[in-house]
Amino acid sequence: MTGELTIIVPVYNEEGSLPGFKVEMDKFLDASPIPSQVLFVNDGSTDGSVSIIQSICRQDDRYDHISMTKNCGLSTAIKAGIDYISTPLTGYIDADLQTSPSDFHRYLPYLDRYAMVNGIRVKRHDGLVKRLSSRIANAFRRSVIHDGIADTCCPLKIISSDYAKKIPFFKGMHRFIPALVQLQGGKVKQIDVNHFERFAGTPKYHFWNRLTGPFIDTIAFIWIRKRYINYEIMDEIMTTSYKRKDAASV
Asked: What is the SS3 assignment for 22-37?
């Protein structure tokens, strides 16, 4: 796949949403000022999602797909997509139609100044349990790691691929992508985005795993942050060193 932006779409049993998702994503792709494409990452779906994805990709070369051998979870699906793509920009959106691909247009003006643009779902159309658990988890995360991110799990992101490919991989990574970009010294811009009721299918999480997972993963993130190594190679100095060596050998 060629272009400037590849949007990763993790899919796990979303057969009811995928046809409508294609319609909405086409609206963005048709109007995008930069060459853009989509990579579906099938995370071991057991419904008809795979056949729908394959049909989409056969009919439109702006779409591609890879498949996991089994259901591995959201963090693994996102990481597999990041590892697979080669474009300068990495996007991410869920296939459930609760966020709109058209909101990506609002991200593009900031990509030359920020390593990442992250959405904030200001008017969420989720059930009470999902909204309450998300609010508690976000508040706990911010109070502990002080990342300043209002909605870390908003499934609408664009990241410089240089930063995305350096994100350390661990279970629950998807909950800390903005903080992991900040850990590398990258700046994160936050923008309000639209949010809608789920079009089809069912949520994959319940109240308790929405709380216990973020709590355990936050502890893991703190451990990683304390031991994280970030460095840059000074090419100019290395080049000078090589030149001196060559001169000495003449």
From this structure: HHHHHHHHHHCCCCEE
Contact 133, 38 (CB under 8 A): no
Distance between CA atoms of residues 127 and 28, nearest Å: 28
Q: Count of CB atoms within 10 A of residue 117's CB? A: 26
Q: How far apart are CA 99 and CA 122, in angstroms?
A: 12
Mean pLDDT (the chain, rounded): 85
**C-alpha distance from residue 9 to each of 17, 18, 25, 36 (Å):** 12, 10, 11, 13
Which pLDDT band, with edges at 50, 70 and 90, does 96 fall under?
A: very high
Q: Which CATH class is domain 5-249?
A: alpha beta
- Across 116-136, average pLDDT: 73
| 3-class secondary-structure state, position 110 | helix
Q: Which of 100-114, 180-194, 196-210 has the lowest mean pLDDT?
A: 196-210
| pTM over 0.70, yes/no | yes
What are the distances in angstroms from CA 44 to CA 71, 107, 210?
Answer: 4, 30, 21
Find how far residue 241's CA is from the centre of its chain: 39
Supply 127's token pair: 């059930």
DSSP, collapsed to helix, strand or coil, labels residue 229 as coil
The full set of domain ranges for the chain reads: 5-249
Contacts of 125 (CB under 8 A, 6+ apart): 98, 195, 196, 197
User: For residue 83, what pLDDT is reported?
Assistant: 96
As a whole number of angstroms, the distance between CA 128 and CA 150 comes to 18
